[in-house]
Write a structure and sequence with these properties.
This protein is globular. Strands 3-2-1-4-5-6-9 form a seven-stranded parallel β-sheet, with helices on both faces. It is an alpha/beta fold and 255 residues long. The longest helix has 28 residues. The model has no long low-confidence stretch (mean pLDDT 91). Helix 8 links the parallel strand 7 and strand 8.
Length: 255
């Protein structure tokens, strides 16, 4: 059975994330919000990251209304964050929770599709900071906590154009493509021997704010919803996948 089949057939037991602390970026909307709701539904305490406190508060309310553990809110703009900001976030998690058992990197930046010749340097750097530098820096800052966890998992979210770059996807595709290099280097440095395991997940087209931006005329009824792909994240956070690391996993369209 291949990885996508394992994901498709995985049925998470109730409360399997009980007492786990997970950091989910981009949790104010779209995929990040769906993953936050799904993981909280199985008992995890979620640290909700995003730029907008108002959006994060809506996710917070949805989790609490559904009976999940009270999450924490951690607003931070990845486009301008520096080493000290990431270190401070990790220190806050350590102080408030004493642990971090996983990170799901859902935050992404994509303003518009355009030819490379039209992209300004500041726009290019923002894409690299949010989509590539921030996942690296945040994972590095939380690494001591992740190493102490008995089943830590880091999931980098990529996109199909990060696997197969194409015209007009510019810095977004480049930054997502580079995640594979980041993953490979961490694997080659032997990190997996110490924990955490790290994988890249490519959910494929879903009905999300990002998809609405890049495909405004698309019939959204033909797309999966963000919550439809959340089980893949549950599998990669579960003990059943603890031997899986260094993989780039692209979900099948009909999975």
């Amino acid at each position: 059975m291949n990885i996508t089949d394992q994901i498709h057939h995985y049925r998470p037991p109730a409360g399997f994330l009980q007492d786990r602390v997970l950091l989910i970026t981009g949790a104010g909307q779209g995929l990040g919000q769906a993953v936050a709701l799904a993981t909280a539904g199985y008992g995890a305490t979620i640290i909700l990251h995003g730029r907008s406190s108002a959006k994060l508060e809506k996710t917070y309310d949805a989790i609490v209304s559904a009976g999940g553990p009270a999450p924490a809110i951690a607003p931070l703009d990845f486009a301008i964050a520096g080493d000290q900001d990431f270190a401070q976030l990790a220190q806050t998690i350590q102080h408030e929770f004493g642990r971090c058992d996983g990170i799901v990197h859902c935050a992404a930046s994509l303003k518009q599709l355009q030819p490379l010749a039209n992209v300004k340097l500041d726009e290019w750097l923002t894409l690299l900071r949010v989509n590539l530098a921030a996942p690296f820096a945040l994972t590095r800052a939380c690494l001591p906590m992740l190493k102490r966890s008995d089943n830590a998992s880091v999931i980098f979210v990529s996109e199909s154009h990060g696997l197969r770059p194409a015209a007009y996807w510019g810095g977004f595709a480049v930054s997502k493509f580079a995640l594979q290099g980041l993953l490979q280097i961490w694997q080659d440095e032997g990190l997996r021997l110490e924990s955490p395991r790290m994988n890249i997940l490519v959910p494929g087209p879903i009905h999300s704010p990002q998809r609405m931006l890049t495909h405004p005329g698309e019939d959204k009824s033909t797309l999966r919803r963000a919550q439809d792909v959340a089980p893949a994240f549950l599998y990669l956070l579960a003990v059943e996948s603890n031997a899986l690391s260094g993989q780039v996993i692209e979900l099948e369209q009909n999975a």
